[in-house]
Amino acid sequence: MSQADIDRMRLLPVAPGGLFIAGQFEKAADGAMIDVISPIDGKVFSQIAAGAARDVDRAVAAARASFEAGKWSRAAPAERKKVLFRIAELIEKHALELAVLGVRDNGTEISMAIKAEPGSAAATFRYYAEAIDKVYGEIAPTAPNVLGMISREPVGVVAAIVPWNFPMMIAAWKIAPALAAGNSVVLKPAEIASLSLLRLVELCAEAGLPEGVLNVVTGYGNTVGEALGLHMDVDVMVFTGSGGVGRRLLEYSARSNLKRCYLELGGKSPNVVFADTPDLDAAAKVSAYGIFRNSGQVCVAGSRLIVEDSIHDEFVEKVAKIAASLRVGDPLDLATESGAITSQVQMEKDLGFMHEAAAEGGRLETGGSQILQETGGFYLAPTVFSGITESMKLAQEEVFGPVLGVMRFSGEAEAVRLANSTVYGLASAVWTANLGRAHRMVRAIKAGVVHVNTYGGADGTVPLGGVRQSGNGHDKSLHALEKYTDLKTAWIQL
After folding, report:
1. Annotated catalytic residue: which of 299, 308, 365, 398?
2. Would you list the DSSP string of 216-234?
3. Of the residues 191, 264, 308, 365, which is catalytic?
4. By CB atoms within 10 Å of each CB, which of 60, 118, 167, 452 scores lowest?
């Protein structure tokens, strides 16, 4: 990947995107479209179809028909495996195209996007391709005259709603295991980040995925998302996004067919640094990147830095210095370290958090403002506030932007209390040289993931999921297959 290749690809025109239903691109039933605005310069550079409830009906009907036809759902696991491998290969072949398209859509810096989007998606499809013919049933311990067999079957039609920050990576976490298990899928991308997924579905068709097995309906959440949530023929709903939307999806399930809903609802993740951390410079760098990469638009971002008293001032100074030195700018420039805020709405929300943190008594160490207004795009300076207390909004609510709040503690018990002082429980980290303390903190912190002496980097072999109001169910690893299969018991009198 060279800068010249990126610059050449950024200039390519992007045709308006349609809905993908039963193997074909088509317009929304009423012809409505949504402008696609690039956060790089604030300009419209394409359009996508604005689907509605009747479009969802068509997509779900196509998914159900393909599932009942059995060409995919009843195919041998080894046959599904071949197609998933071909999808992974095509993603890798078109990786730069997919990454640039996604960056133009959502503003992630290209150096991160190439790995986190097509790179991660290809690895995910390959992982589940390898896994699916290695999932065995069970024989129950029964009396000699009875045979009890337990098998896994695909659930049917899966609706997947994915966010705008890493659309391809997160979609792959949901699509790949669902397809591997034999299901049919209706995917709803975020309306402000759909383009790379519309290209992905083309590649899936090229790889040999049968018509109707994977459908995409673009559009707004309050139309397409609601229609999927209320649909009587969707068996399982999977979602990554905000808590408010997650609650509505649970309501829709109760009002319709009681479909199972698996929700990843973000977090306010604590990053706890003890005074015995062996390398404070390394910890400061990783901590800064753990919040400021992708402009803080990461569900597991370490947005609460909790530092022991004796090193607090020194460590905050180190993190603030790194934050101030990060190169923020054109996300399609390989030298950029932190890209654009995905939309003007999100940028204004982030600025509101900054203003409120200052009003509540937080001390601004660096950043705190919009930058690069002359580009027309949406950019914020990486921002660090110290003096944050657990009652402040910045300590309790997910910003989803490049804003770090620093708290201080004295002693392990207070560190645990502060780490657990929000309603969330997605990710966390602990920095210490004390192995016993590390194990105690892993047990004590209420989060689905606890990093020790690092932040981020967990691959597809381990699950990602939250506790408390960060949701339920897991993406990644073999455990993800549990969402997309039903257990069936056969009780046979011999």
Report:
1. 299
2. E--S-IIIIIHHHHH-TT-
3. 264
4. 452
Over residues 409-457, the pLDDT tens digits come to 999 999 999 999 999 999 999 999 999 999 999 999 999 999 999 999 8
Q: How far apart are the first and last CA of the chain?
A: 63
Q: Considering the domain boundaries, does residue 288 fall inside one?
A: yes
Query: Furthest-apart CA pair in the chain: how many Å?
Result: 79
Strand partners, 461: none
Q: Quick check: 1 pLDDT over 90? A: no
26 catalytic? Reply is no
Confidence at residue 120, expressed as pLDDT on a 0 to 100 scale: 98
- Look up 261 and say whether it is catalytic: no
| Overall average pLDDT of the 285-306 stretch | 97
Q: Which two tokens stand for residue 479?
A: 């455990």
Based on the domain organization, do 45 and 77 belong to the same domain? Answer: yes
Average pLDDT estimate for 336-365:
98
> What pLDDT, in 10s, does the model give residues 225-260?
999 999 999 999 999 999 999 999 999 999 999 999
> What CA–CA distance (Å, rounded) separates 430 from 274?
8
Total structural domains within the chain = 2
Buried b (16+ CB within 10 A) or exposed e, 385-407: bbbbeeebbbbbebbbbbbbbbb
Three-state helix/strand/coil letters over 266-283 = CCCCEEEECCCCCCHHHH
Using CA atoms, how far residue 61 sits from 131, 184, 260, 310, in Å, is 29, 10, 19, 62
Say what angle helices 167-180 and 77-93 make with each other, to 10 degrees. 160
Please provide residue 119's backbone torsions phi and psi, each rounded to the nearest 5 degrees: -60, -50
Residues 80 and 212 in one domain: yes
Q: Return the CATH number at 341.
A: 3.40.309.10
Same domain, 250 and 282: no
Q: What is the pTM of this model?
A: 0.97
E strand or H helix that includes residue 57: helix 53-69
Torsion of CA 287, 288, 290, 295, to 10 degrees: 170
For residue 465, tell me if it sits in a domain.
Answer: no
Q: Nearest to residue 103, comparing CAs of 172, 161, 45? A: 45
* Per-position DSSP letters for 120-189, written without gaps between them: HHHHHHHHHHHHGGG---EE----TTEEEEEEEEE-SEEEEE--SSSHHHHHHHHHHHHHHTT-EEEEE-
